[in-house]
Write a structure and sequence with these properties.
195 residues, mainly alpha, Four Helix Bundle (Hemerythrin (Met), subunit A), 2 strands, 55% helix, disordered C terminus, DinB/YfiT-like, DinB-like, DinB family protein
Length: 195
């Protein structure tokens, strides 16, 4: 996919996530946002806190990658083998559960509205980073993977992975409070990119 269309789709998906969280989750009472739909299942706020923990790691790494000058031209967005595997695993359409690392697991927490505000702030940062990325080589291996920092992923595939991960858990948060609207389920990032 060409980089401009790719980044436009990611931007649209992030804006949809923010709109969904602001209209569907933000108005709810803290008790409802903290309610677990089943034993050992995350509440809506736990889902968002999980995403905040990832954003605290990845947003600065994106900024660092974008701060380095590019020496190559920006061709169509390409994927590594590992990148495709991670994207397939995180796709919101993939119903298989993925175990998270303990330090990224907010399970059992009593959280407040500040989690929603932090999530929205991280998304605004991500939108600014996506805008910056329009002048970057999205195929450069520049972003260390959070759980295996020796492994670097391409900038474009890591942006996409972050957005897919967020879509997956925002859908989970919506289910935790009583159902995911079709607009979130239908919102996807680059057609066929994660297939």
């Amino acid at each position: 996919m060409n980089p401009t269309a790719f980044l436009t789709e990611l931007d649209r998906a992030v804006r949809q996530l923010v709109a969904t969280v602001q209209t569907e989750l933000e108005p709810l009472a803290p008790a409802q946002l903290n309610q677990q739909p089943a034993p050992n299942a995350w509440s809506a706020l736990e889902c968002l806190e999980h995403l905040n923990r990832y954003s605290r790691y990845y947003n600065p790494r994106f900024a660092q990658a974008l701060a380095r000058p590019d020496t190559s031209t920006n061709g169509d967005v390409r994927y590594s083998w590992a990148g495709r595997k991670f994207l397939d695993m995180m796709a919101p359409t993939n119903t298989r559960k993925v175990k998270t690392f303990n330090y990224m697991n907010p399970g059992g927490s009593q959280l407040g509205r500040e989690v929603v505000a932090e999530f929205c702030a991280h998304q605004q940062q991500l939108l600014a980073l996506l805008a910056q990325a329009r002048r970057a080589d999205l195929n450069r291996k520049a972003v260390p993977v959070e759980f295996l920092r020796l492994l670097k992923m391409r900038l474009g595939e890591t942006f996409e992975l972050q957005v897919l991960h967020e879509q997956r858990h925002v859908q989970q948060a919506l289910r935790a409070v009583g159902g995911a609207p079709a607009s979130v389920a239908a919102a996807s990032v680059p057609d066929g990119a994660a297939a």
